[in-house]
Amino acid sequence: MNNAWEYQQLRFSSDAEGDESIVPEALAEKGDGRFRSRLGSGWGFPLALLVQSLIIVFLLLYIVLLGSEDAVCAEQLSPYSPYFESGMLDHLVYTEQNHLMQPSPYRGQPTPEVEEAWIRLWRLPMIQFPESKLPALNKSDATQYMHASQDYGGGVLGFFHVFHELHCLNMIRQYTYRQTYDYSNVTAFRAPEEIVRGHVDHCIETLRKQLMCTSDVTPVLFVKDDSRPSGMKSDFNVKRKCRDFGKIQDWALENLAQPPERHQADQVESLVELVHI
């Protein structure tokens, strides 16, 4: 008995042309142009569109997740703030230049320009805070707090703590120069001396607490310096990842609020100023 198997090409009946081969020999050897054309026109464009769509989806997903990661981190490290819900939370990454004599518009002997630069940092308007979020700040009785005019949507009046901290830093700076510069137009310095001294001490304490609270653990390295007795010096040009302060200022300006008219003072420019009168 002959057990050898013989393989033969499968055949089928073609009504159109009588070609019985499933894959014609010409197509098997070098491909059929009509077949390739139909494949290209039928699948090429949808396939390219699908790939492009997937790339766009993954890029958008990456951007959203990256942004949400920063927002989640901010919410974990800070009490509630309406700013976290604004979609404006952004960070800047850079290496700052901070050697001992680094020029800055905020340092040096006071001038009208220096004073104006500091004022622009912290003197911003009041904002409205939703009553429903008071428990997030460990507050409860909304009747204790000044409310915004209904023209601004109601809610509790407030301001961001960073502006108070910058006010405090500015207050300390001005205190160190008050013997050589006229600060008679600054409300805080028109108070009795013991109040002025108490205000400065309050500001020092505020900044101490804030620095310890955030506890910047960015490494400061030592660089070689043969001119120093120790042979080295601290490199304060450190890498930073900081919230975009300009966007925080923009949000405060865009969401300003005022108290009801009967509580508005003629000369009060910001709630931060009001707090320290």
Automatic annotation (TrEMBL):
Give the record's pathway. Mycotoxin biosynthesis
As given in the record, the signal peptide range reads none
Transmembrane regions listed in the UniProt entry: 43-65
Question: What biological-process terms (Gene Ontology) are attached?
Answer: mycotoxin biosynthetic process
For this UniProt record, give its keywords in alphabetical order, as a comma-separated list.
Membrane, Transmembrane, Transmembrane helix
Stated family: Belongs to the ustYa family.
Q: Do you know which PANTHER family this protein is assigned to?
A: CYCLOCHLOROTINE BIOSYNTHESIS PROTEIN O (PTHR33365:SF4), YALI0B05434P (PTHR33365)
What protein is this chain from? Tat pathway signal sequence
**What organism is the protein native to?**
Zymoseptoria tritici (strain ST99CH_3D7)
